[in-house]
Amino acid sequence: MNEMEVKATFKTITPLWTGDTWQECKEIRPSSLIGSLRFWFETLMYFGGVLKEEQFNKALGRFEKEVDREKLKDFMKHNGNNLSDILTHLDTNQKIPLPSIIFGTTNWKSLIVLEEIKHLEDYCFGNRLNLHSRICFSKSDLQIKVDNDCPKKSNKNFSVFYLSQPYFFGKFEVIFKVSEEILDSIFYPLLTFMDKYGYWGGKWSIGYGRLRVEKIEIKNENTTGYEENKEWQKKEFNLAHFGLFTFKLENGENPLIKRVINFNELLNQEKIVKILDSCARNNDLKEVIEELIKQKSQERKNITDQKDRHYKFGKTGRIEGEDLPQGSKILPFIEEDNGQYKGGFLSITGLLNLENSSQGDKNG
């Protein structure tokens, strides 16, 4: 299997938080970055119709199935070790979900491996943006309080949001090893999506995790140094290896992303990434983050059905009678252009179709 080394240079748009077991962020954790790539790949493949509800493993919270080692060994014994043929076998004969093939599962190694992370230039683990430790909004009139003036958790009067610190802010580079078989068809399109729309790490519900790809360099097994690739951005996934179709991120017949014009459109469970633009604009990132959290809090209280509200906007802690995912499906979405920060919202409420699926506890 031919592998390419891909060196990606990232710059934070919003804070990057990759917490450990103790919910502290003192380093950029490789597992958190790879986990983010897998999550967004699964989301796009589900929205694109490649993945079906019956393939979703609800117990694990992802599309996962173990590779049958003996069947794989027997196939390779009779057919050789050509990766393209093996991928077809895993997909067609063993019915392994595509994310498990790309990112690995029991008895099968990932085709995308994160080898190294290196901090660059003037980076910081701390609170470079001078964010408040927490902010809260009155549920009656949206009065704002900050830090110790807020209650420690949400109550009947205030919605409380913690702005997790320390976080990473600055530049860093990542070296990936990627199977050449999927470099242009899957890895680069996924990285293109992450650059424009995706989130890395954690705390997405408060707008953390937006990164920009500043540069891509590549090295293969026959070269000693890296060469810059200025044409790495790919706007469509080509799944011909798996007997599937090609589909575009935007535009085209069945796009994965669409822009909407009002907040209510973010709430429907259509299987597509929905983006609402131009909800906040400022040169101060701190102001944009806090304004979007305020708007989200206001929209949240407009949903009177508690279960529906928790499904779409998330919740904290355990609530009796509710076995729901805690993560928000509506995220503050921030872009940066020449020092100007533009804020809106990104919705992945289409994933709620998985939670409502009666097939969700099966392994595919």
TrEMBL record:
It comes from the Bacteria. Keywords: Antiviral defense, Coiled coil. InterPro entries: CRISPR-assoc_prot_TM1795, RAMP_III_fam. Residues 9-212 form the CRISPR type III-associated protein domain. Residues 282-309 form a coiled coil. The keyword Coiled coil applies. Transmembrane segments: none annotated. GO terms for biological process: defense response to virus. NCBIfam families: cas_TM1795_cmr1. This is CRISPR-associated protein Cmr1. It comes from Thermodesulfovibrio aggregans.
